Amino acid sequence: MVDILQTGITGLRASQRALATTSHNISNVNTEGYSRQRVEQETNPPQYHPRGAMGTGAHVETVQRLSEETRVEALRRNQAEFERLDTLKEMTGRIDNLVADKDAGISPALRAFSSAIEEVANDPANTVARQELLTKGQALADRFERIDNRLLELQSDVNKRVRLQAEQVNGLAESIAEVNSAIRKRWHDPQQPPNDLLDQRDQKVRELAELVGVNARVQGDGTVSVAIGNGQPLVNGTQVNDLEVVENAYTPERPEIALEVEDGHRQITDAVQGGSLGGLLEFRGGVLDETRSEIGRVANSLAVSLNAQHARGVHYANGRPEQGGALFERAEVQVQAHADNRGGAAPEVGYDAERIGELEAQGYRLRYDGSQWQLRGLGDGEVRTLGEDIEAGEDGAYRFDGLVLRLPAQAEAGDRFQIQPNREAAQGLEMRLSRPEQVAAAAPAVSGEALTAKGQSQNTGSGAIGSPEVGDGDGVAAALKDGGALERGVELEYAEGEQGQGYFEVYVGDESAPRGRLEYAPEDAEAGQRYNLSGVEGLGGLDVSVRLSGSPDPGDRFQVEGNYEGVGDNANALRMAELMDETVMDGGNSTFQEAYSAMVGEVGGFTQRVQTNRDAQQALLDQAEKQWEEVSGVNLDEEAANMMEYQQAYQAAAQIITTADEIFQQMLSAVRR
C-alpha cells in the first residue's frame, strides 16, 4: 500500500511539472526568442524482490530546451546579412533617386549650359546670350553643390547612425556578459541547464547580429564568446571589449570604429561586416564616397577644361583684347596629413590641364619610408614608387592621372598623406565671371594672306593658312600687348632653295631679318603641315599653331596677328561649344554628360542588385526562421494536446493516491473490529 501511495505521488509530481512546463510554454508563445521546453521523464529505480522487480514510479530527469545550435547560428547569420542588404538598399536607393532625377539632377543643367555656350557661338556680340551663359553656368555650379549637399546630409546621417549603433553594440555586449555571468553561476550540471537564461542570451546575440555580423561559440562553463569582424573578440565570458568611435587619422570629422584593447584601441572599420552597422560602413566607404568623388571628377574635368580653353580666348571688356579669365572657381586638391606625421610640410598637388582626361575618381595615399615615396590608389590598390614608376618632369614635379605633385622639401620616415582630388570638388564650383562682356568668345589671333597698304593680297600660288590654335594663353596674351609679336604681326614668306626645297621665313613686324625658317615639305599638299610659332627663335612664349597647305609660289606671304577688332568673333566660343561634346574624360572616351550618365547607371545598377539580393535574402531569412520554429517554436495546438494528456495523467495519479487512501482506511477499519 505504501508502494502504491509513493508511486502515485511520483506520478502526481511528474505530471504537475509537465503541466507547469506546458503552461510556461503557452505563457511565452509571444516572447521573442523563447525556445519551447519539454519535460524529460524517467522511471524511478525499481525495488527488487525474490519474485522480480517492482516499479516505484517516475521522476523528472530534466526540463529540456528544444534548440539546435546549427539552426540558431543559421538564423543569426541570415539575420545579419539581411540587415546589411536592407540598409544598403535603403541608402543606395536615396542616392539613386537623387542623381537620376530628370529635373533636379545634373544632366539637365549640363545640357542647358552647353546650349548657352552654343548660343554665344552663334551670336557672340549678343549681350543677352552672354548673360544667359553666365546664368546657366552659375545654375550648373549650384546644381553640383546642391547634389553634393544632399550627399553630405546622407553622410552626416550615416555618421550619426554609426555612433548610435556602436553604442547599441556595446549595450548588447554588456547584457550578454551579464547573462553569461548568471549562466556560469547556475551551470553546475549541464543536464540541468538554465533554459530561460540561455534563451535570453540567444536573443541578445541575435539582436547583436542585426547590428553587426557575429561569430558565437559556447564555452565549457556554459558562457558564450562573441567575435565580430575578422575574429575580433567583443565578449569573452564576462569580459567585454567595447567598441569605440574614434576620429579618422586624416579626416577628424569622419568617425571610425575601433575595438578597445589593453594598450588603447585598434581600428577595425574595414573589418566590420554584416548587420546594419556593417551596411552603413560599406555604404559610406563605397557608394557614397564613390558617388561624391565621381560627381567631383565631372565638376573638376569640366572646370579645368573650360577654364583652360577660355584662357585661350580674349574679350574686349576694356576696348582692347584681354585674356579670358577662369570661367569657374573650383576647389583645390585636398591634401590631408596623417595625425601621427612628424614632418611639418605637405606635398603640393594640383590639376594637370593638359592631361585632365586622365583624372580618376579615386583618392591616393602617399607615404615616405625614409628613402622613397610610394603612392597607393585607394580604389585600385596599385602602388607606384615616385622616381621609378612615375618619373619627375624637368620642373621636378610628378605627373600622373591628371594631377601634378610636388614633394615637400623635408619629411620624416613614416609620414603619410591622403590626396583627394575630387571628393570636395562639387562644393567649390562657382561661376567666376560677373559681367557678360568678360566672356572670351574671340580668338586672340587671326591669320590670312598678307595684305598691302591698299588691303590687297599679292600671292600668286595656291597656298593657304588655317585658323590659329592657341596653346598657352598666358604667352599669347603677352604677345598682344604693345610691342608684342602679335601686336606687331608675324609674317611667313615662302621661298625655295637651290634644290627646290621650300620653306617659310618668319618675320616679326617690320624687321628686315627673319627670326627663323620653317621647312615646308608636306606629304600631302592639301593636308599641308602644322607649325607652332613658339619654336621660332624669340617667339618662345607665342604658343600659336597654324597649318600651311597648298602650293605657294616664292614670295607668297601669310600673316598671323592679334585680333584687335574681334568683338563679333566666335572662334573661341565655338571651341568651348565643341569641348562640351568632345570625349574629354576617361582618357578620351567620354564626354562630360556621358561620364555623369555612366555614374548614374552604375548607381542604378548597384541599387537594383542590392534590391534583388535583399529580396532573396528575405526568403532565406524566412526559411531560417521557419526551420528554427520547427524545433524551438511554441505550437499552441500541440501544447493544448499535451496539457490534456498531462491533466489526465495527473488525475490518474491522484486517483491512485485516493485508492491507496481507501485501502488504508479499510485496513484501519478492519483492525478496529
Automatic annotation (TrEMBL):
Chief localization: other
Region (Disordered): 33-54, 450-476
Protein name: Flagellar hook-associated protein 1
Species, as recorded: Halorhodospira neutriphila
Flagellar hook-associated protein FlgK helical domain residues: 93-328
InterPro entries recorded: Flag_bb_rod_N (IPR001444), Flg_bb/hook_C_dom (IPR010930), FlgK (IPR002371), FlgK_D2-like (IPR049119), FlgK_helical (IPR053927)
Segments forming domain Flagellar hook-associated protein 1 D2-like: 358-421
UniProt entry keywords in alphabetical sequence: Bacterial flagellum, Cell projection, Cilium, Flagellum, Secreted
Subcellular location, record wording: Bacterial flagellum; Secreted
All residue ranges annotated as the Flagellar basal body rod protein N-terminal domain in the record: 5-34
Domain Flagellar basal-body/hook protein C-terminal: 630-669
Family the UniProt entry places it in: Belongs to the flagella basal body rod proteins family.
